[in-house]
Amino acid sequence: MSLVPLVCDVSVTNVCNATCDFCSYAYDKGQVHTRSWIDRKELARALPILYARGARYLNFQGGEPLLHPEIDGLVADAADAGIRPGLITNGWLLPQRVEALLDAGLRMLLVSIDSHSLEEHERNRGLRGLGERIRAGVQKARQRGIPVYASVTVSRLVQYDDLPDLLTSLGFDAVIFSYPRRKPFGSSSLVFSETSSLIDFDEPELIQALDGIESLRRHFRVMNPRASVEDVQRHVRGEEEIFACVGGHKYFYLDWNLDIWRCEAWSEPLGSVFDFAEIADQRDRCNACTMACYRDNSVLMHFGVALEDAASALAGGRLREAARTVFRRSVLSSIRSVAGAAHEVVRLTPWLNQRTVRAKAARPPTSELEEITS
Ligand code: SF4
Ligand code: SF4
């Protein structure tokens, strides 16, 4: 029984046009030695394999994904394969490309924001005038009714009290935080910096920054579940986490070489995506890192995964194991987190939101779509 859809982050290129201090994709860091681009035809060939494994969400990322010359086609192929495409971008090319992406079937947009100060954000990105481009792109996406979130990395550039004013003025619905990473990844991902002074937090500073996320909830919608932030704080303190990560089971990373990885943080790929059907789920309990997308989904998916595991135990006649799997404090906490994010879960889940699915299939004009999703 599969209740919980699989999510896959897809890096379509290692090229970026920005200079973010805390990221090694930045073009001024000299870490990208060979420019790479995912092959559209090959990804299209892989989509049915991903779908058969349970993938219902693909998040396109980079580098900067809008630099991929066929990003609209990649989005369209995913949508046509029945997998909801989302995308995270720095927003520089958004005004030019957002309409085509929406026409192609984009269902969620994330735009990176580094600071409560637009000036600081543009300085860190090395892109003057970026704010106005983000504002224009976000407005177009909102007019078409898709969720648009700010993606903010926890860093010294963020003052939490002042963040809502900027995010509201740029038109964001909500914010999702990601946590800083200093150690290099074992995978092809370069979203880390060993040298950035913006993210060299010691333990008390990082705990305080995570507390800032909790305070912000009173003023602006934060998408990271509270239980997830608390688990990351446990990790930072060296305490045992409550939730096992779903990386390698319900959440995967696919790179421009079409290699499928347990996650960005893993040291070797599981294999080619074309062999995905033969690659086993990774169910050993891993809590080695604090990557937000994996940790947040681990909390939200925990309840559904527990039900799946209980159903399989029941099918095997193991009644006590089934009961033990479901009646846990962590499952109750996951249910609370899902309830807290009910609005977004319904909005993003195709089989809970059939009206939106029909709207995507028919791709009606803007005014009609606004009516459907209002
Ligand atoms: S954080 Fe994003 S925009 Fe900034 S350098 Fe890295 S990939 Fe580029
Ligand atoms: S905790 Fe980190 S390293 Fe472990 S599976 Fe999850 S994302 Fe990967």
Account of the protein in words:
This protein is α/β, with parallel strands linked by helices and 374 residues long. The protein has a single domain, classed as TIM Barrel (Alpha-Beta Barrel), CATH 3.20.20. Helices cover 43% and strands 12% of the residues. The protein contains 14 helices and nine strands. The protein has a nine-stranded mixed beta sheet with strand order 6-5-4-3-2-1-7-8-9, sandwiched between helices. Helix 1 (40-53) links the parallel strand 1 (6-11) and strand 2 (55-61). The two termini are 33 Å apart. The model is unreliable at 350-374 (pLDDT under 50). The structure holds iron/sulfur cluster (2 copies).
Summarize the SSE layout with pairings.
Layout: E1 6-11, H1 40-53, E2 55-61, H2 71-80, E3 84-89, H3 94-104, E4 108-113, H4 118-125, H5 130-143, E5 148-153, H6 163-170, E6 174-178, H7 203-216, H8 226-237, E7 251-254, E8 259-261, E9 271-272, H9 292-315, H10 319-326, H11 329-340, H12 342-348, H13 354-362, H14 366-373
The structure holds iron/sulfur cluster (SF4) (2 copies).
The site of one iron/sulfur cluster has 11 residues, from loops.
